[in-house]
Amino acid sequence: MMSRSNAIAVRGQKNPGSGSLVAALWRCVVFGKSDRFHWFLAERAFLAGRLDVAQWRYRRVRRDAILTGKARLMDDWIRFHNGDYSTGWPRYPGAAFVPPLVPATPPVTMQPFLVADPRQPVELVTHAGMRQWEGAESPVGPLVVWFNFKDSLGGEILASRLVQLLQKRHQGPLILAVAARLVPLVQATFPDCRVIDKAGDLAPFVNECHQFVLARDLLGLLVASDADFAALADARLLVPASATQPKRSSCRQPRIALSWKTTNDRQGVYRNVPVDQLAAVIAGHDVEWHIAQHGDVASDVATLRRLAPQASIFDDTLHPLGDMATFAGELAALDAVVTVDNTLLHLAGGLGLPTLGLLSVPAYWAWPAAGMGSRWYASVRLLRQPRAGDWRGLLSSFDRELKTFVSTPE
Fold it and tell me: Distance (Å, rounded) from C-alpha 397 to C-alpha 383?
């Protein structure tokens, strides 16, 4: 019996043009299905925490342009997770930046201009005439560190950790272009840098700067080993004095900020802690719980109070939707932070606050594959699900850890 591939070959001999087209279409169908097949199995393995299997499958995705980009991201994710820092920041689809080609000396203009897409700051080249700094030589003049993130304050806080390493290795003025809500906090932390709102008018420094570097790229340029991480783990974000809240020394109970979900719908499916299970834990500790949850969580707070009526729960002391410097000052007035993997985890870690991070399976690429250390933040201890979806197992560890995590203030 003639095989399908042989039948295609025979038809191609009878009608070369038609057969070639049919063969090409058949290859597309077969290879396309193969990529989708590997992607499907890779995603299943990844979400189950079987990263070695997932990585093998992701690397089999090679032909479909969209899936290949996503597969490279996940391969980078797993490699960094496992301690291979050579990849730098994972290659997020849409975040790769190729500087446009422009004349060597574009016309200088003082007209206001904005960057349309923070992940693709082409205007720095086309309007300001800058070139991208790639780390080989010392920067010429003020170097713009462009935080190429879109709606990711946690990512920007994470990347800000690398500015300290950049300052140590390359003496020279820096201009840090960050999200508007982070400007006061970053300015207080780096008082010798100029900090600007990356969504604002960039014309005022058009004539000052000749080079820029993407904040995501700093990881690949500056970090090659655990020793590099050790050099930045103790660095702290500084709260402006005007935002610092006085500590109430008369309080008997430890005061802990609490967050149990992320507003990222896709990641929230596996990162969010079930409120009923969380209530059972917080009810058993003599602690003031201060709600630090972003978004409308009135229903969740009502559930916590109903299921843990003896718990001390405060929902009016922290304001995560306001200015980040003010929010940081409010957090700094407390004793500790407990949170899932969201912006609060990065903010609390950056501030050097005692923090317990509740990690789901799979965990974020930036965290190590195992252990309680976080690489980035010395004050953060990571608690992990024993297996995908097992919040009861994690909360059992949290319950035990909390007994010694903070001591009662005197």
Answer: 7
Between vectors from CA 205 to CA 199 and to CA 210, what angle results, nearest 5°? 110
Specify burial of residue 197 (Cβ count, 10 A radius: 0-12, 13-18, 19+): middle
How do residues 191-219 score in pLDDT, each as one tens digit? 999 999 999 998 888 778 889 999 999 99
Would you say residue 30 has pLDDT above 90?
A: no
Mean pLDDT (whole number) for 381-391: 95
Higher pLDDT, 379 or 13: 379
Residue in this structure with the two tokens 């919040």, named with its chain if needed: 391
3-state SS assignment for residue 112: coil
Query: Contact, 52 vs 79, CB < 8 A?
Result: no
Please answer whether residues 179 and 198 qualify as being in contact, where contact means their C-beta atoms are separated by less than 8 angstroms.
yes
d(CA 62, CA 67): 8
pTM of the model: 0.88
Token code pair at residue 17 = 């043009």
Cβ burial 1-31 (10 Å sphere, 16+ → b, else e) = eeeeeeebeeebeeeeeebeeeeeeeeeeee
| Burial profile 229-258: b = 16 or more Cβ within 10 angstroms, e = fewer | beebbebbbbbbeebbbeeeeeeeebbbbb
Calculate the alpha carbon distances from 410 to 239, 249, 253, 335 in Å: 24, 7, 9, 12
Could you give the CA distance from residue 82 to residue 80 in angstroms, rounded to a whole number?
Answer: 5
Burial of 286 (0-12, 13-18, 19+ CB in 10 A): exposed
Residue 144: its H or E element: strand 143-146
